[in-house]
Amino acid sequence: MTVLPRRPVLDSVADSAPASPVAESGDAATPIADSVRAQRCFRSGQVVRILGVSRRQLQYWAETGLVVPSARTNGGHHRYTFEDLVALRAAKQLIDAGVSVQRIRRSIGSLRRMLPEIGRPLSELVLVATGDLVLVLHEGTAFEAISGQEWIFAVSHLEREVQERLGTAKRAGRRMRRPEEARSGS
User: How are beta strands 71-73 and 28-31 bridged, if at all?
Assistant: First the structure.
């Protein structure tokens, strides 16, 4: 089980204004990056309404590390950034498509190892569910999230291979039948 780093604490949060997040450092709270400070943070109730998930689902996903909120208030309440909403929506869509929460968690762990430059796979990558598999579309290729097996091949390579094999078959004196000839029996 991977232990995730502590998330920033918020001094105060208003529904309509960006939060003032601070990170915990020892016993004292210290300011965190301006990029997080400038983001609007959403309360759990707002996230529930926006995404159509239950409060319990949201809480479970945070507790188990599927999607951990970016900040907390001094009172311990979760606050979600827009990036968190993107990650939550991706997780919800994968689950709705039939991917288990455990597989999503394993996929996230594998993606963090395979692509260390990606900090938050659910919000930074394009993920596609096919059955219980999670495919990742990244830099012109598609691969399975856990194994890393590539799922897209270059059509031009297949075309060249077909031409080479058909050319070889004709040179060997064998005539390749077209599909319509095979069906008619001629």
Answer: unpaired
Give the Cα separation of 184 and 150 in Å (integer): 38
Beta bridge partners of 102: none
**Cross-strand pairs, 129:** 134
Full DSSP string of 115-179: -TT-S-HHHHSEEEEETTEEEEEETTEEEETTT--B----HHHHHHHHHHHHHHHHHTTPPPPPH
CATH, domain range 9-96: 1.10.1660.10
* Residue 28 reports pLDDT greater than 60: no
* pLDDT for 43: 95
Looking at the DSSP bridge assignments, the partners of residue 132 are none
**pTM of the complete model:** 0.64
Amino acid identity of 155? V
The pLDDT of 81-94, averaged and rounded, is 96
CA distance 70 to 44: 12
What residues does each domain of the chain span? 9-96, 110-151, 155-184
Identify the pLDDT of residue 61.
95
Give me the amino acid identity at 14.
A
Residue 103: how many other CB atoms lie within 10 Å: 18
Rounded CA-CA distance 71/142 in Å is 32
